[in-house]
Structures are given as C-alpha cells and as structure tokens.
Amino acid sequence: MTHQDIELLQRLISIQGVASDESKIKEFIKNYVLENANTWKCKPQIVDGPEFHDTMILVFGKPRTAVYAHMDTIGYSVGYENHLIKVGGPKIIDGTTLVGEDAAGPCEVELMAIEQENGQLEIKFVGERPLERGTLLSFKPNFRETDKFVQSPYMDNRLGVFVTLKIAETLENGAIVFSTYEEHGGNSVGHCAHHLYQNYGVNQALIADITWVTSGVEHGKGVAISMRDSMLPRRSYLNRIIELARSSGVDFQLEVESAGGSDGSVLQKSDLPIDWCFIGAAENNVHTPDEIVHKDDITSMIQLYQYLMEHL
Amino acid sequence: MTHQDIELLQRLISIQGVASDESKIKEFIKNYVLENANTWKCKPQIVDGPEFHDTMILVFGKPRTAVYAHMDTIGYSVGYENHLIKVGGPKIIDGTTLVGEDAAGPCEVELMAIEQENGQLEIKFVGERPLERGTLLSFKPNFRETDKFVQSPYMDNRLGVFVTLKIAETLENGAIVFSTYEEHGGNSVGHCAHHLYQNYGVNQALIADITWVTSGVEHGKGVAISMRDSMLPRRSYLNRIIELARSSGVDFQLEVESAGGSDGSVLQKSDLPIDWCFIGAAENNVHTPDEIVHKDDITSMIQLYQYLMEHL
Amino acid sequence: MTHQDIELLQRLISIQGVASDESKIKEFIKNYVLENANTWKCKPQIVDGPEFHDTMILVFGKPRTAVYAHMDTIGYSVGYENHLIKVGGPKIIDGTTLVGEDAAGPCEVELMAIEQENGQLEIKFVGERPLERGTLLSFKPNFRETDKFVQSPYMDNRLGVFVTLKIAETLENGAIVFSTYEEHGGNSVGHCAHHLYQNYGVNQALIADITWVTSGVEHGKGVAISMRDSMLPRRSYLNRIIELARSSGVDFQLEVESAGGSDGSVLQKSDLPIDWCFIGAAENNVHTPDEIVHKDDITSMIQLYQYLMEHL
Prior knowledge:
- Three copies of one chain form a homotrimer.
- Chain A is an alpha+beta fold.
- Chain A has helices at residues 3-14, 23-36, 155-168, 189-200, 235-248, 263-268, 295-311, and strands at 45-47, 56-60, 65-70, 75-78, 84-87, 97-102, 105-115, 121-126, 136-139, 144-145, 149-152, 174-179, 204-207, 211-212, 223-228, 252-256, 275-280, 282-284, 291-294.
- Chain A has an eight-stranded mixed beta sheet with strand order 1-2-12-3-13-17-15-16, sandwiched between helices. A six-stranded antiparallel beta sheet of chain A has the order 5-4-9-6-7-8, with no helix packed on it.
- In chain A, helix 3 (155-168) crosses helix 7 (295-311).
- Chains in contact: A-B, A-C, B-C.
- Chain B binds chain C through residues 19-21, 23, 50-54, 77-81, 85-87, 133-134, 136, 181, 184-188, 190-191, 193-194, 270-271, and chain C through 203, 214-216, 227-228, 230-236, 238, 254, 256-258, 265, 268-273, 275.
C-alpha cells in the first residue's frame, strides 16, 4: 500500500456513517470519484439521487458483475437516561471512547458496561453533558499502521470501500454498489440490484467485505473466498470463482463458516436470480476499535477482484 | 374525542380480525368509507379487490406520503386437544376470555395457562364444547372509557385505523394503506407499496400504530415519534419529520427503543427505496385485553398526522 | 404405488442435491420430463435456464395454480479439521453414514457427535482420507419398502417431487415449480412466482412438501392440509381448499402446528399477492436417514392434488 492508499483509507475511516446515517460518507465517496475518475482507465456513470437514498452505484462499460461494499458501520444510539442501544453488533468493551454530534455540537463520551444482578450487561455512557435522544455514536477514529498490518475501528467495511476504489482505477466493465444498512437490518441492495438487473442484466455479485481470522483463515495467507457463512452461495457459481482464483495466481484462502451474513444474504433472499459470493480479507478483533488486517491480504483482495472482474 | 369518535373506535374493536383473517374488518372499513367519504374534504379512490387480498388503499389527490395502519390483531389458533397456539405475541394471562366462531357457531372460552415441569407454559382453553381445529380466537371486546383514558383489547391497532379515518376527513393529498398480517409474519404491505410507488411515485411512509409506555415515553405527553425500534429509519427522513413536528406545535415525545417492529420493518426489507417512520400514541398493558391509551395522545396523534401529511 | 412408481422415487432419492447444489437433481428431473411428457395428457412448456438458476417450471395449459416442490435436501458442509457444519436442520445422530464427492473422487464417511464440556455437540466426521473444505455431504441412500410404508432419507422432499411428477401425467391447466434452497435460507421461489404472476396471472400456490407425524396427524389417515405452521395461510383461501377437499372424497387430515416453514413462508414474505397452502403426507423420523411415510398418505396426496388442480 502506498502512502496515498493509507491516507485514503484513513480518511474513509474518519467519516462517521452509522447504519441509517450514511449521507456524509456517501458524499465523501462521490466527491472522491468526481475528483479522481479522470485518471481512471474508464470513467464510470454515477447512479445516485433520491431514488437511491444514500446508496450509490458506479457503472463501468458493460457490467456483468457488481461488487457490493457497504459504507455503514456499527455503533450505538443514545437511549433514555444515558443508556446506549446497539446499532449492529459492536463488541461491548468497558471504557471504549465514542464520538458523535447532536444539536449542542460534537461530543465524546466513554462507554460503561455494568453487569446487572441477572447477569445481563447494562450499557451506559459517561460524558461532560447529556446527549439528545437518538444521537448516533461510533468508535473514535484511531488509525495505526505497522510494516505488516493496518489497525483501526471500521476496517469493516471502510477497507472494502477502499478496495473497490482501487479496483475502480482499472475497471473496464463492471459495477460497484456502495450500500447502506448492512450492519443493521440490511437491504438497501435490493433496489440497486434491481436497477442493475433491469438495465444491464447484471446477475453476478461479489461481496467486498471483511471477514474473521479463525482456525481456518489466517493473517497474511491471502484474501478469503467464503464458501459459506450462515448462507450458502450457489455451488456452480462458487466453483467458477474458485477455479478462476486458482488461475489468477493470487494468494487466497477458502473459508467455511457456520455463522455471519452480508449483503449477499440479502441478495439470496431477494426475488432476483443473482449469484453472489463473499470475498474479503480477514481481520482480528472483529467489531471492536482494534480491527486489524494484514497488508498482504489487502493486496491480494485487490488483485483477485481485478482478475475476477475481468474473467467472471 | 366526540361521542361519535368513541362509537367508531368501539365498533372497529368489536370486529374480529386475527392476522390471516381480516376480510370482515376490511369490509367494515370499506363500508364506513363508502358511507362517509361524501362528507370528507376530498373523496378518495378505493383500491382493493382480489389482487390486493384483504388489504385496501385509499388514494387522495396526488399522494407523496402513505400512512400504513394494520387491521389485524393478535390472538390464538385452536390446536389439538384444546391446546392454543399464539397468533402474534399475546401476553398469556390465565383466565382471559376468548371468542371466535366455528362451524357450530360462535363460541366463548377461557384461557388456561398451565406451568409444566420444565418451566414452560402450556396454553389450553376450557369451554362448553370442543372447537374445530384451526379456529381463530381473540380477546373478548371490553371497551372502557374514563375522562382521560380509553381502554380495551386491540387499541393496537384499531386505534391506528381510527386515527387514519379521522385524518381522511380532511386529507387532500396522500394515501392510507390498511394492511394485514402485521402481527404475524408480516408483509401484505410490499404489494401495496409497489402499487403506490409505481403509479404515484410514493416513496414516503408513516406507520400509524400504537407503541409502549416506558421510562422514556409517558401517558399524556403527546404522540411518540419513534427514532428506532429493532430497525432504524433513515436519519435524514427522521430529521425532517422531527423538524416538522417542532414547527407543528403539536405535543410529541421522542422514542428510542431496542426492540419491536412494524410495517416499517417490512418496508425497510423490501426492494423499494421507501422512507418510513413509526408515529403513534403509547399504550400500557401491551398485547393484553387491557390496553390503555391517554385521550390527549390520540388527539396529538391525529393532529401531527394532519400536519405531516400536508407538509412532508 | 406401482413398481415403476417405487423405482422413480428411489432414483429421485439417489441423486445428491444438498441445498445450493441442486444442478444434478434438476437435470435428472428435466430429463425425466423430456422422456415422459409425450405420454402425458398435456405436454408442458419447460421454463429453465440461466435466468432461473437451478430451478425449473413446468407450465401446463392456462395455469391458475402453481405447485411448489423443493428439490434440495439437508446435509452437511465440511469445515476445518474434519468438522461438519449443518446445511438446513439435519438431526445429529452419531454414526450416520454420509456421502459426497470432492476433487479426489467420491467419499463415504461416518458422523461423530462429541458432547463437549459446555454441553454442546461438536460434529466431526471420520473417514479414510481428509476432505476438501466446503465439500457437501448427505445421508447415504438407503431405500426400504414394506406393504404399508416407504422409508428412506430425503422423503422430504423427493417424495413431494415424485408426487408432482405423478400429477403432471394428467394435469391440463397448472404449473409445477421445482424449487431450490428451501432447506437453507430459502427463496428461489420469488423469481419463479414473479414469472408465473406476470406472464400467467398465477396467484394461487400449493406447497407439495412432507410434514410431521404428531399427536394430531397420524400415519395412514390421509394427506395433511396444514392450517398453519410458523406462518398462517390466508383464511379465505384455506377455507376454499378445505371445502374442496371435503367434496373430493379423498382422505385428509387437518394440521395445526406452531413451528416449521416452507416455500409458502417465502411467498408470504414476498411482494406478490399470492395465496399459499401447505398440503403433504406426514412422515416420522423427520430429518433423519429413516424418514418413513405411509403409502396410503402418498396416494391421497396425489389424489387431492389432482382434484385441487382441477377445481381450485
């Protein structure tokens, strides 16, 4: 990763976009595209606007495959009496620093996890002032880089967004969907998938998201192709992808999980005959402020997407 | 609320409509509309028929926003050997009087909750005769009114239906969807939303349903605008609604919940780019025969909907 | 059931088709249709191809009702270090023989269920060689027939597929959908239902699947009409079906369940106004290699479908 790459990733992570409130990060990405597309191999058509809510699609040439990268993050909503309610599935860690903004301006608070008599955790915040009901809070940006690793809140999925922006540089035929709500409730992708299916016949999807380091998927061994999570991609599509990955020469690992889901799960449950497969680098410390990814896995993620978008 | 209002609400509550069996309540509402629409400011188009199952849509003028009010209620199905199976999530209370009808005519039985050795509740009924398999039972109507409160089974959501019929009196541009299945399984609203989106471009929804009195939402403090339940409405839409509510001068409370869902959740998970927000009065004794709502909250619910349907 | 019938059922069961990997069983059924349709009363149009993934539709005459039979089965995915991950909900039985195929060829292994200290079951396999990650395994075919019963893995739902192929012989107006993914994740039926709704106005569905022997549904008492499972079919449609079943003279039982789902649940949650009802023979030893069904219930299942497809 170049210095510029690191800078772009860091900027993507710095912009708040808790699920349901993705307008700022969407604007940032749109501006980035507008500023940089002239240097790309092929200039994409930008599809967005009220009919697309806070999602955005880039269409390059004649797309056969769409890459989905969700822009939203996990976080918390402010409830009553300083209580916090999860958005998505953040790991509750006492002392976590959270940031947000309400009518009184920006705020920074500390998460307090209090074990109750029944064993359940009560989640509250402590801060200098009360916060308005419904204020959305997220992990305070805290980007760290070493020789081999990048570490930060929200690798999931600002790293996926970053990867798609790198692919965009050389993409000739394909679509990139920047989706919303993936971490909580899901389905901003149905409308986008319909648009691409009806207008371009796009019936292949790749899910550019971040997965988990496990006993079967390790740091630095290459991007993970997920053979299943809670859902199973269609076998014939999966087999084609694995075969292409073998031809590509790019490092990759095969993942087999029992749990978890993605924008792919939503496509599976849509009424469209769209094949999907999750392909992404693995991270440790999932859904904490310390998500960490090996740089080589990022590189192989970019390379495999480049190869697949050309050959799939 | 006038004497006539109370009478209408009471009649709406008296008609059985357990989820999956809404044809009678739909016919009642349709007849009410046919009899009263002449006195309304604007006469709506009635959209119903086989293609709409037991749902019904009223279209006034040029609609931008649709109000969704579900007609169905919770209840029980008769299983084998006098067992009862929940429809939706009724609170199981020993001794509750349930009514229904099978081939042998109307019936009235008493619910019996028997704690089993493993701690689970067995739900059965006792009555004068056996009932046919699959018979649907609901709470016996029992309407009570005081100076400040109305109390009855099925405030959720016959009160929401009542509110929409009050809004209908002065509505010039908008749609009202009377939905089914909300309490169990959901999604009669997908088809209705498609109809309104394709024919009128309606992409804004308000969910007229009843919520819960909690530590943050109290009786008599105004209608609740739900900032979230298990799902989160899109922030930019929510912000517009709160801003309008502030301009309206109507009493309202901001709700932030971690659980619960509504027809809004179904719209969220549909393939349509439709914004939604739950706005409704709060009740106590949720999903029991004793649901109770403050009259002032009903008044502010009607007023806020009138304002929003004009300005949103 | 004739000797030929038993042979067909046995062949259907012998072909692997774990959810997500239904291409082989689909090809078998397609070939069966191509070879046999000339002897049928009416030759159907075959709808399949890339736009339909591994599903297939047969359209006879002017269809009003579609029968849905899922082709996929439950099974296991090979995880890391000889672990197995469920596909659908197989009952975990120590010693079960599983079969599959990976790049090294066919394989046969034995399931090992190991109770862990925390009480949870660890599921692994033992075999002569390691298996590739993600390999799909299913119960080894083991067909048994007595005077009154047929017993085998995957009565659910190869028996449903068999029944539809028997109905096909005399069907004049109707559609048969061979669906995928029913056991895991669901929804290959949305696209098929859209096709039939848009092109033929088909808004009635019957779900040809296998249900459970319980205290209320017994072996040999006739096909079960399910009044509900986790979902409730629309009452007016259910009432029409029960009335027709009474006129038909065919043996049937009324089922009322609290749990379970089917392709009907997916239709309920789709955006289409399609009525659905589950009608199928009951089995014992559900989701094991020993699923057992009474032959009389198979006969009444075929007869009731024949009657309903003509009169509904």
